[in-house]
Write a structure and sequence with these properties.
alpha/beta; single chain; 337 residues; 36% helix; 8-stranded parallel sheet
């Protein structure tokens, strides 16, 4: 195998703000794996919350590049344990695992969803994310991108007022993501007000380790609660089943498609709603997420839609949320020249 590593700085259409950070660009690492005339692509974005940079991932992978290139690749499932044994961060593992899956599908000349025994006759529509801004700017973003489902980032002093103002502009479904900014009391009090305003569920209202608070919320919230920061890796799924109604799996956080597939199965077995979310990836990462959609209840794969310029072609999300899958195998990714 031949491994390629390239950092990209992705400009965003608008400043993207959540309760704890704000940025205008997204750094990301694209990994390529070439074998037998085929090239697979994977991605992992930098993330300050988890102290991951593109440079740190490049350094990790470069340190073992000779070993990676000497690995006798057969399937992603056999490649992933090898990556785990090298003590890489989950973000670096994700980029390599996604590239391995894209390569594998291209070698077999089949899309991943078909290799996994699923069809794309039915799948959930992605939400479109509205980051924290002035109410006027949030309304302008909604008008710029009319959409059937919006994820609204909250964590301000006037959260309910924001949703009331946005509701006046659209009858779309709302999902709320507080990114750990609320207390249990706030969540329980906000839930009935938000339910009246057409909110479907609340994502990660409390700090990731506030299990006691989440137990209170689970007993008293009138809206379903979805775990995000509390659900990072496979071992978190079982604990989340006692404190949440569903889980949001991020490929970058768990280490790629290989563990995500297991997390989906475990979550469903435990009676959880299952969602996969993005981290403002380009079409490289979004195309990998799309392969999972037939297995999901909800999906957040609008990352490439938030970019001013994309770097790849693959899965295309149409204006009504429908997914156009490429005919190319794997995740169907090609990099723009």
């Amino acid at each position: 195998m031949q491994i390629g590593l390239k950092k990209y700085v992705l400009p965003l259409k608008h400043t993207f703000s959540i309760s704890r950070e704000s940025h205008d660009f997204q750094d990301t690492l694209i990994v390529s794996i070439a074998l037998n005339g085929n090239v697979g692509y994977g991605e992992a974005t930098a993330n300050p919350y988890y102290k991951i940079t593109a440079e740190s991932m490049i350094a990790e992978i470069s340190n073992i590049q000779d070993e990676l290139e000497a690995f006798e690749f057969s399937t992603p499932e056999k490649f992933h344990p090898f990556l785990i044994s090298k003590n890489l961060s989950n973000f670096a593992i994700c980029a390599l695992d996604l590239a391995a899956h894209d390569l594998y599908g291209k070698l077999l000349k089949q899309p991943l969803y078909k290799i996994w025994g699923t069809t794309v006759n039915q799948y959930p529509i992605t939400n479109f994310t509205i980051g924290i801004a002035s109410i006027e700017m949030m309304i302008a973003k909604m008008k710029e991108t009319p959409w059937p489902i919006y994820k609204i980032k909250l964590g301000t002093e006037n959260d309910i007022a924001i949703i009331k103002a946005l509701r006046e502009q659209t009858d779309a479904t709302f999902r709320i993501d507080a990114n750990c900014a609320w207390s249990a009391k706030e969540t329980i009090e906000n839930a009935p007000l938000l339910k009246e305003l057409g909110v479907e569920f609340i994502e990660q209202p409390l700090k990731a380790n506030d299990w006691e608070g989440m137990e209170q919320v689970m007993h008293h919230s009138v809206l379903p609660i979805i775990a995000d920061e509390s659900c990072i890796v496979e071992s978190d799924v079982e604990k989340c089943a006692l404190h949440f109604n569903g889980i949001n799996i991020k490929l970058t956080k768990c280490g790629g498609l290989t563990p995500a597939l297991r997390m989906i199965k475990k979550g469903k077995k435990l009676g959880l709603k299952v969602m996969v979310g993005c981290m403002t990836e380009s079409t490289v990462g979004i195309s990998a997420i799309a392969q999972l959609t037939p297995q999901l209840d909800y999906v957040d794969m609008d990352g490439a839609m938030l970019l001013k310029e994309d770097i790849a072609k693959g899965v295309n999300v149409t204006t009504k949320g429908k997914i156009k899958f490429p005919t190319l195998g794997g995740s169907g990714i090609t990099i723009n020249s």
